Amino acid sequence: KNALLKVNNLKKYFPVEEGLFSISSNPVKAVDDISFEIYEGETFGLVGESGCGKSTTGRTLMRLSDPTDGSIEFKDQNITSLPERKLRKLRKHMQMIFQDPFASLNPRHTVEKILEEPLIVHKIGTKKERKKMVREMLEVVGLNGDYAKRYPHQFSGGQRQRIGIARALILNPNLIVADEPVSALDVSIQSQILNLMKDLQKKFNLTYLFIAHDLSVVRHICDRVGVMYLGGLVEMSESDKVYENPKHPYTKALLSAVPIPNPEVKRERILLTGDVPSPANPPNGCVFHTRCYECMDICKVEKPKYQEVEPGHYVACHLFNEKEPTDK
Ligand code: SF4
Ligand code: MG
């Protein structure tokens, strides 16, 4: 398998300025040392509660935001500190789809203008050719080409998300970062958009990073899934393995909230107590220990290593330490 994107020990900290004299306190560790690869043609899911750092990860690896530390490689090129001029070229190959398409579509522009803009920025085609490309792209995402003359408010939420997808696709990118693309849509519309994304993936050989806050949406679309908690990856594996054999206590709790279609399969609901701690002041040891129902003494003092416990299955939890026995 070819890695299209490689993220190594990525950190994104936000400085916090406080008080009258701007004494800076602890930075917010939005993303704290995560590593993963996304293979060409796959859909990699990044899942976790809001504030866990998944959106920041997406924005940082697209270089919409500068990483604090670590490295990002895209198509075998180190893009960690590319200057803005080169980034612009790169963005042709990596595009984003947002949760709220309405907020990301300029209400005063026609769909034609919205979709034509990236083509103009990248100096693609004549005006006539661009108009034709826009019409064709609208049809590719299942909309009428004549809709080019309309404004965003004239569309339903699902149609607007199709426009958002058309805008992301019009430059013919390799990687699409989709940040909760269906979270704001009705359940019935969600599956239409997910099916469209799957079809487009095949048609255009796309690679997806799919960000979501719950595991139910991710299962049907993702090949592999990474689970994030408080800025870190706690578990990562093929989707089926994560669903059928979750290992990290946090993943188990998240999964226990996902309804199972088969009523004969029973899964006990695990309710987590307590709030997610502040990323400016994360707990010592395992950052999940304040909410973990399996917490041991070692968890409060020692950060668990993120390690491969089965081929391709990574977990950060002392329950899976190779060397030490886990029952003491
Ligand atoms: Fe729970 Fe300890 Fe594992 Fe953290 S390391 S998830 S506290 S058992
Ligand atoms: Mg988010």
TrEMBL record:
<dbReference type="Pfam" id="PF08352">
    <property type="entry name" value="oligo_HPY"/>
</dbReference>
<dbReference type="InterPro" id="IPR050319">
    <property type="entry name" value="ABC_transp_ATP-bind"/>
</dbReference>
<dbReference type="GO" id="GO:0005524">
    <property type="term" value="F:ATP binding"/>
</dbReference>
<protein>
    <submittedName>
        <fullName>Dipeptide/oligopeptide/nickel ABC transporter ATP-binding protein</fullName>
    </submittedName>
</protein>
<dbReference type="InterPro" id="IPR003439">
    <property type="entry name" value="ABC_transporter-like_ATP-bd"/>
</dbReference>
<dbReference type="GO" id="GO:0055085">
    <property type="term" value="P:transmembrane transport"/>
</dbReference>
<feature type="domain" description="ABC transporter">
    <location>
        <begin position="5"/>
        <end position="255"/>
    </location>
</feature>
<dbReference type="InterPro" id="IPR013563">
    <property type="entry name" value="Oligopep_ABC_C"/>
</dbReference>
<dbReference type="InterPro" id="IPR017871">
    <property type="entry name" value="ABC_transporter-like_CS"/>
</dbReference>
<dbReference type="GO" id="GO:0015833">
    <property type="term" value="P:peptide transport"/>
</dbReference>
<comment type="similarity">
    <text>Belongs to the ABC transporter superfamily.</text>
</comment>
<keyword id="KW-0067">ATP-binding</keyword>
<keyword id="KW-0813">Transport</keyword>
<dbReference type="InterPro" id="IPR027417">
    <property type="entry name" value="P-loop_NTPase"/>
</dbReference>
<dbReference type="InterPro" id="IPR003593">
    <property type="entry name" value="AAA+_ATPase"/>
</dbReference>
<dbReference type="Pfam" id="PF00005">
    <property type="entry name" value="ABC_tran"/>
</dbReference>
<keyword id="KW-0547">Nucleotide-binding</keyword>
<dbReference type="GO" id="GO:0016887">
    <property type="term" value="F:ATP hydrolysis activity"/>
</dbReference>
